[in-house]
Amino acid sequence: MTGADAGAPAGADRATLLADARAAVAAERWAEAARLARAALALDADDAEAQALADRADLEGPAAAQAELVTRSIAGGDAEAAVAAFAAIPEASAYRAKVAPAMTELRTTFVDKATKAVASAVKAGKCKDAKATAAEVAALWPDDGATLTAKAARCKAPSSTGDVPIVKPPEPEPVKLDKAIVKRIIERARGAIEQCHQRQLMKDPYTGGIVTVKFTVGADGKVTSASGSGVSSEASSCVASVFRKLRFPAPGAPTSISYPIPFRPAEIDSVEKAPGGY
Fold first, then answer.
1. Distances (CA, A) of 247 to 35, 188, 204, 250
2. Cα dihedral angle (214, 220, 221, 226), rounded to 10 degrees?
3. Which of 85, 86, 128, 183 could form a disulfide with 191 if both were Cys (CB 3.0 to 4.6 A apart)?
């Protein structure tokens, strides 16, 4: 049995497969729709409708997972995760339009709060606070961040000859990267990791396992190298690329870490119910 017809109902003809695939698309059961459409393509590789259904399922399946992550992140007050998940939703996906109003509201609320904080910091001569707030906004929404950065640049710190002494802050102490810190940082990238998982499920819903990522955090907290193994070369390479973009607290010296990411296979009898492995 080939991967294309592995999940097809025994003896199902092309018309039945297409009808079931349409129903799965209507119900937004994307993994099931992809499986049925590919089973129809196995019977007729030139079937335009089956190809269109498979393409839509490939697009909307990962997009649905990212849209759900956007909603959860907004509810949890994690603007960084929400922005990252929203950016991972393709422009062509219907899910992008569904969550766009919530993202607009998040942006408005976040920027309004930051604008007040920058104004207050500038007035008090707390220039570092003003610039830090502007930089936080710029990392999420560059246009708004540029406006706040310009306002923060007008800040004037108290003179060293005035009543308020300028004290040089101490150098930050190196941070030990224990399991809790590593997990917290990796959790911030769960949206991008889940996208790797969804791509794997779309390619082969019955393969699961552990993607083990071995990476090194430099003295300044940047990931200097990362490689993955397990499940498939595509899945491990995808996850490793996510890890290379992570930023950890500065440990003061290069630190090597091995971290497992579970990828769960889809259920054999009900692909659309399989939860994400991460």
1. 37, 10, 31, 9
2. -20
3. 85
